[in-house]
Amino acid sequence: MTESPAPSLGDAQSVRPRGRLRTPEVAAISVGFMGPVMAMSLNGIGVAGLTGRAVPFTFLVSFIGTMLVAYAFIRLTGRITHAGSVYALAGSTLGPRAGFFGGFALLGTYLFFAACIAGACAVFFQAMAAELGLPFAEGLWVLIPLLVGVFVLWLNLRESTVTARTLLAIGLVGILVMLVLAVVIIVRVASGSAPVSTGVDLGTLLPGDAPLSAIMTASVFGFLSWAGFESGTSLSEDAREPRRTIPRALGLAVVLAGIIYTFVMFAQTIGFGTDEAGIAAFAGASSTLTALSSTYIGPWFAVLISVIAFFVAFASLLSSTAAASRLLFALARDGFGPRGFARVNPVTGVPGPAVLFVVLSTVVIACGSGLLGATSVDVYYWYATIATLCMVVAYGMTSVGVIRFVLGSGGRIPVWELAFPVLGLAYLVFVYAVQVIGQEAPYTWFPWMSGAWCLIGLVIVLARPGLAQRIGARLTREDVG
After folding, report:
1. How many domains would you assign to the chain?
2. Per the domain annotation, does 2 fall within a domain?
């Protein structure tokens, strides 16, 4: 990408998108990105292997860590309205160079997460085909990101309300089915009609015998279940009354996910059983929701869960590409990249060129990796790791930004609130360390890859002082109130 003149504010095709979204719809973008059914199918497995029966307690710790990180976003989006998310939040508080650096890191987060989720679509499609008894050759998985990419592109090119409502519908169905399973498990275990004999063990909500080091390390797996909670901020300019809507939507998404995750993990833990055999079964499952569905309701419900998991993965891909395209639009509008990325459709208000580029890039990355020999599972975990490392950098910039914002508020914000972003920043450093220390190839390569992406952003902003000046002027003029 090259530096280009900033689009004129009077250009009818480079103005802000239309503000139509309400709090539930913006929250749906964030929840859709997180993909609760995906998270609950996969992310508890590693936690069980580290903490035993303390899985629900570990998710409570992750919930607290996420709230500490989310504080910065909730505080700043009450003052800043911009499609650039971290780009604007860090830029308005730390300066345009820092804003561009944070925004570029977040762009990497969204792009790599999109590729990761494209792989997840293939993983869950293969699982769905297996549950339905349909033949599907392993090597053909590369066709799935291509096919879902077509539908993602079609939906994302429509009005943002269509995307949000699609995510809301899919997300609600997924959460409802998952909660039905959790309730059935708890009822059967409590009534003594379950295939386990350890009962409703409320001790799972306490650390138990699990060492603090194991709980903190395992909490990183839980934290990844909230990855992308801030994606709704990228639709700030699509929202009605954004300085009220966006903070409420972010808080709603994080809290709703925290309650659901803890409840479902409690059900899963007692569903497998809290003895040694049960914990081993939990830690060794390939998809916990599918396994428990077969045990507690029947094979037909396992099929239903697998079908819904695929559609939730699709919804997460839809959300991640929507967030990435809005961020790319924001960067291009301020002069970074082809000017065409800053154009929006005058009818739908959607930045079509940016959407097209993001979706095509996602498909190329996912399918290209497959053609080079990677499996769909490889694509899911590889790009999730790279995206997480970029995400920690972006979130960290926002936490540092809100610290400066509080200190410069002239007493309007109590100084004691600094405890939240400081603890959030410490937790992010811990998350990064866990993702780097003790890993084996190819995971030892990924910190270098994410670091190279962030370094590119740093080099660009240092080499283009005019770009930073335009960013600063625009943020000051339009986005801070």
Report:
1. 1
2. no
Cα dihedral sign, 292-296-302-304: negative
Q: Which residues pair with 480 in a beta bridge?
A: 80
Is residue 17 assigned to a domain? no
CB 341 within 8 A of CB 1: no
Q: Which of 123, 31, 33 is nearest to 316 (CA)?
A: 33
Does pLDDT of 272 surpass 90? Answer: yes
Spatial separation of the C-alpha atoms in residues 462 and 456, rounded to whole Å: 10
Q: Give me the long-range contacts of 373-378 (CB less than 8 A, separation at least 24).
A: 375/138, 375/141, 376/119, 376/120, 376/122, 376/123, 376/126, 376/141, 376/144, 377/119, 377/123, 378/119
DSSP 303: H
Asked if residue 120 lies in contact with residue 41, where contact means CB atoms within 8 angstroms, the answer is: no
Between the ranges 52-56, 79-83, 156-160, where is the mean pLDDT highest? 52-56
Which whole-number Å values give the CA distances from 360 to 14, 367, 479, in the listed order?
A: 22, 10, 30
Identify the CATH number of the domain in which residue 82 sits: 1.20.1740.10
Closest CA to 284 of 37, 44, 40, 45: 45
CB of 282 within 8 A of CB of 45?
Answer: yes
Flag whether pLDDT at 336 surpasses 90: no
Residue 5 lies in a domain: no
**3-state SS class at 80:** strand
pLDDT for 364 equals 95
Phi first, then psi, for residue 231 (nearest 5°) are -60, -25
Asked if residues 147 and 281 have their Cβ atoms less than 8 Å apart, the reply is: no
Domain of 362 in residue numbering reads as 23-479
The average confidence (pLDDT) of the chain is 83
